[in-house]
Fold:
Amino acid sequence: MKSIVCQQPGELKFLESDKPQAKAGEVLLKIRAIGVCGTDIHAFGGSQPFFTYPRILGHELSGEIEAVGEGVDLPVGKSAYVIPYLECGECVACKKGKTNCCTNIEVIGVHRDGGMCEYLCLPASHVVVTEGVPFDQLAVVECLAIGAHAVRRGDITKDDTVMVLGAGPIGLGAAQFAKVAGAKTILADVNEDRLSFAERELDIDATVDCKGDVSAQLDALTNGDFPTVIIDCTGNKGAMQSSFGWLAHGGTIVFVSIIKADITFNDPEFHKRETTLKGSRNATKQDFEHVVACLANGSVRSTAMVTHKTDFSEFPTIFPEWIKPQTGVVKAVIELG
Structure:
């Protein structure tokens, strides 16, 4: 079978290997669609933490169950998506149900080889059969689940005004799930095209142009109260640090972004607001199930986010072009067969 390996930063190439066989407790998945994620972009660019080379990328996956190993009771031939976070089940986080931040976590496509390949063996517990949702939509369930988890971390309700910083795929997902929770939702970015896209396609309540005076715009949009929850999805140190001054008193900041840097804030301002600061890492099965339910009932739209597609055979050539801002990629999907 063929796989796409990131040999080193800036280099993708095809790798030939034998088709894997499902062992006891495993599923052999025939990969049908792969979502291209910021993790893949950062790995290609050499800025992804927790990463070693060479590595087969890809953790946003959907496919058909090709075969099952001993002890697996899943139907062959059915469509499924993948929960790519392999937890130990024994550590302090796992025992509290926080499998997304397991102390020994292995993320497919990051800590171990991923799904940019024709076939992949996975633990049956991390393959979820789902009917009635196309492969391209199933491939972005993981991306949306990260946004859904961030909204859950923020304890967002209809009484909140939420600002999502960053109008990339994770931010667009978080903004949609904040809307599902009933909150007034503001999306902020420096990219005017992304903001216009969100207002037009995703019914976001308001947008903020971060090239201008963010505080003044928020003051006008919230009658001086400022957002009660800020979810940062920018991966930008300046934006992350600035968010402490854009928050309502008594508010919560959720950092989805992960960067290779230290984040600092002014302690008197932090205490004046009695700020709650939370990290949000990956997602849990509960978040995945919420995403699929929202896709099924139409309250969240993945199709609008998928702006670019390519065949598996073309990806190594086209990917370096896709990461250029002028190409207008919001979310890209690789399709196989």
